[in-house]
């Protein structure tokens, strides 16, 4: 039976002998340069995962001159568990919010906006944002959605818009901040692209750098992204027309069904994969005691009905027709 998967993961044959170094080949710098240019940022740093970069972001807030106690963190409950796990394990305070529309795109994880009085007695606004864009990559995205000091984090997990063998990349227009992340992810030493014997320890950092194979796969998929997005936009327009929706994500296509469990059982018999994005995190017992702004009605209702359907660039017109027909016959 033919399968209709949620995502497409490109396969590559990698000749590792072409790398000058399995850990820090030139491909690492190429990926950073081309990714930054694609999203309209000046600087980028690649790491072993987006989770590592988001962890460092939340650890580094005080280093960047803000007071986290004065700027409360509020995150969607309909979210991958990696985000609340990071906050929990760093012993940070946060609250849940009733946001279900961000799924498949990006959201502001932290906004440091505050007003203070300068030495001349004038009110000055200081701010920067940490934007989690693990599920969205588009041309000039940073230029359109962010300011110079902002940090935007992307995932290179195999199923994400620019998939790799896992990995993550952070961009900004602030060189000092990106240099800090590059040092932090390389054990706290100066750039590993220099002679390994001439490096110095700036501060005790972490082993969070990627390997050359990760960067190779991600770079090749980045170069295919425009073509991939063109196909996804065509499929999305067809789905929207057939299902009467106005979905905009290029990562997930979600529909609502009355009995999700029954629907998933029925549709699986035809080889059509489905996914749940996501169960409400605030209902997990491990997070008991975390505050909510209010009853998360939208999150809890949507979590019972939402289901993701096959949405990838490998689907043919015939595949899309098949998926649509089976969904319509079973909802």
Count of discrete domains: 2
Helical segment tally? Answer: 10
Q: Briefly note the structural class of the backbone.
A: alpha/beta
Averaged pLDDT, please?
A: 90
CATH superfamily of the largest domain: Type I PLP-dependent aspartate aminotransferase-like (Major domain)
The radius of gyration is 21 Å
Please tell me about this protein's structure.
It contains 10 helices and 12 strands. The longest helix has 19 residues, at 225-243. Helix 1 runs parallel beside helix 6, helix 2 runs parallel beside helix 3 and helix 7 (225-243) runs parallel beside helix 10 (317-330). It has a 5-stranded mixed beta sheet with strand order 1-9-8-7-4, sandwiched between helices. The model has no long low-confidence stretch (mean pLDDT 90). 33% of the residues lie in helices and 15% in strands. It folds into 2 domains: 16-66 and 128-223, Aspartate Aminotransferase, domain 2 (3-Layer(aba) Sandwich); 225-330, Alpha-Beta Complex (Aspartate Aminotransferase, domain 1). Strand 7 (129-132), helix 4 (141-145) and strand 8 (151-155) form a beta-alpha-beta unit. It starts with 25 loop residues before the first helix and ends with a helix. With 331 residues, the protein is of the alpha/beta class.
């Amino acid at each position: 039976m033919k399968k209709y998967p949620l995502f497409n993961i490109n396969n590559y044959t990698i000749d590792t002998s072409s790398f000058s170094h399995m850990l820090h080949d030139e491909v690492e710098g190429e990926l950073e340069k081309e990714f930054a240019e694609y999203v309209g940022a000046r600087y980028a740093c690649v790491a072993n995962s987006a989770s590592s970069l988001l962890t460092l972001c939340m650890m580094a807030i005080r280093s960047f001159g803000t007071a986290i106690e004065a700027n409360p963190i509020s995150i969607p409950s309909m979210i991958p568990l990696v985000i609340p796990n990071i906050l929990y394990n760093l012993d940070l305070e946060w609250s849940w919010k009733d946001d279900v529309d961000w799924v498949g795109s990006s959201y502001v994880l932290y906004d440091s906006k505050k007003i203070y009085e300068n030495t001349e007695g004038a009110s000055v606004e200081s701010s920067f944002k940490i934007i989690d864009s693990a599920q969205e990559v588009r041309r000039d995205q940073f230029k359109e959605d962010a300011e110079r000091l902002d940090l935007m984090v992307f995932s290179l997990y195999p199923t994400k818009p620019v998939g790799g063998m896992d990995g993550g990349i952070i961009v900004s227009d602030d060189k000092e901040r990106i240099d800090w992340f590059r040092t932090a992810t390389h054990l706290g030493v100066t750039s590993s692209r220099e002679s390994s014997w001439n490096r110095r320890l700036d501060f005790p950092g972490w082993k969070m750098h990627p390997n050359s194979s990760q960067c190779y796969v991600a770079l090749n998929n980045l170069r295919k992204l425009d073509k991939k997005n063109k196909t996804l936009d065509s499929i999305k327009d067809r789905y929207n027309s057939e299902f009467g929706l106005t979905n905009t994500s290029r990562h997930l296509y979600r529909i609502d069904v009355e009995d999700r469990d029954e629907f998933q059982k029925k549709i699986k018999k035809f080889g059509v994969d489905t996914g749940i994005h996501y169960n409400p995190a605030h209902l997990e017992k491990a997070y008991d005691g975390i505050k909510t702004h209010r009853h998360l009605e939208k999150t809890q209702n949507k979590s019972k009905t939402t289901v993701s359907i096959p949405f990838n660039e490998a689907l043919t017109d015939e595949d899309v027709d098949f998926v649509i027909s089976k969904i319509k016959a079973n909802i």
